[in-house]
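Entries read chain and fold; for instance:
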Amino acid sequence: MDSSSRPRRRRRARRPRRRALFSLALAFLTVGCGTVAGTMYMTSWAHPRAEPVSSSASRAADGEETVESATEAAVDRDALLAAAMGSVGVADGAEVSVAVFDPDSGEAASYGGGVFDTASIVKVDILAALLLRAQDAGRTLTAEEKTYAAAMIENSDNDSTSALWRAIGTADGLDAANERFGLTRTAGGDGPLWGLTQTTATDQIALLRQVFGTADTELGEASRAYVRELMERIAAGQRWGVSAAADGAAWALKNGWLRRSTTGLWVINSIGRVTAGGHDYLVAALSRGSATQEEGIALTEAAARAAVSVFTGNAADDAAGAQSAS
């Protein structure tokens, strides 16, 4: 109760008691109390729990360098992917590179290097470049462009691709768009040879991040949604590749295949988004040197499964399987 509410005639008689109470309050302050506007309150440590003092805390007080025991080392996703790829059979003379991105955590992993011919996966890049040009001009795609785009992505139609390749300005137009998309190691094919565009698995992840909106995107939402819609409607005979890592039909993809006339060997590539274990992953698997198309498809599918296993928790099993097989 505040002293201003007490009768005046009792002030003198109660003054010694008030001094005693004031002294008691001061003493109480030394063990964890404070006052605000004449009202006593308890601090957060007024009723401390007895906690043991760790030896590391004692050393810290003495000025010694300490390491936080609760800090865990970052997971080396690249190492996990390399271990998982140990169980993937790669024929003599064949090469494979794979990359994966987890939008939930922002983590990525990649395996293999080098630059690969795109074959028909470049068709996603061509469509993205076309949409970017349309955005810059403040327009939407024409009916003819949409017809070409649907045939190019869903059915991998080459004539439609060539028409849109010219519409974007061939390699120069593609390269200009890719500079804005953040693709640093992709170069458009010479002349009409869009299928010989050169790229890397990590660059394809950068492109997919533009399409699926997991980066600072140059494409607007309507453009991104349009590309995704077409990638979810791939013709039945072309539903292979990274989709092998998905749960059921939860995927959006584009594949590329090309038999090189100089060697007779196959370039087999696959890019897209897959859903596994309730999470989405962006995956790019590039390969070359397979003796048959079927071998190349099997290689990209195995690489895609290994990449996704890095995040779904199966990488350790894959690594164990690779050790037992060696």
The mean pLDDT is 81. Residues 104 and 279 are 8 Å apart (CA to CA). The chain has two domains: 3-55, 82-325. Residues 293-312 form the longest helix (20 residues).
